[in-house]
Amino acid sequence: MAGYRFLQEEAYAHIREQIVAGELAEDQIYSETKLAAMIGISRTPVKDALVRLSQERLVDILPSKGFRLHRMSQEDIWETYQLRTAVEGFCVLHLAHRKDSPEGAARLAALEAANARMAALEEQADIEAYWQADLAFHRLLVEAAGNREFLSLFESYNYRMSVIARKSFQSPNRRTVALAEHRAITEAVRRSQGRDDMAAFAAVRRHMEASRDLVLQKEE
């Protein structure tokens, strides 16, 4: 059984890495059998890995055909942003309440450095580099809570975030506005007055809602 779990994890990690790296094309149907042969394992652990990836909404399983990348629906977009607001909103409150500690001050400095990297990329055409800088900012927020489950959840929805972000950053001025929203979050943390100060959470929510609404408009 331990050997089988290892093979399933190997298949899961291999397929997920291909998805996140953008090595699988949208709308193309992939064969479970061919993928298993390429990895060098049997079809069964590949099939079970695909079920797990389907549950994470990374792939769509097509019975008797194979699988393809998951097609993001409006429901997916809504749920992803609700999840992000809940997790990152809590984490930013956690940071705001501890901003004067050595760890909090270091985290604030890291957030400001992430914003500076985004500013340096703002006028460049490389959307992927800007997205990676944006992702680094949000990872710093989640890491601030010191909660491994939050970080695992954050990593699990990275791919959905990347699909959504690439769409939103193609809109005129979105990168400029996103950077301003990041700076507003950072400043709200810095100015926090204690546990009852919800300004940082509100700044996260505004950022999420602005991006969500922009992407939903593109989907209509």
What labels describe this entry?
Four Helix Bundle (Hemerythrin (Met), subunit A); mainly alpha; Arc Repressor Mutant, subunit A; 2 strands; two-stranded antiparallel sheet; single chain; 220 residues; 10 helices; 2 domains
What would your notes on this structure say?
The protein is mainly alpha-helical and 220 residues long. It is built from ten helices and two strands. It has helices spanning 2-20, 32-39, 43-55, 74-97, 102-121, 127-143, 148-156, 158-168, 174-190, 199-219; strands at residues 59-62, 66-69. The longest helix has 24 residues, at 74-97. The radius of gyration is 19 Å and the shape is globular. The mean pLDDT is 89.
Q: What's the gyration radius in Å? A: 19 Å
Amino-to-carboxy terminus distance: 47 Å
* CATH level-two architecture of the largest domain: Up-down Bundle
- Arithmetic mean pLDDT: 89
CATH class of the largest domain: Mainly Alpha
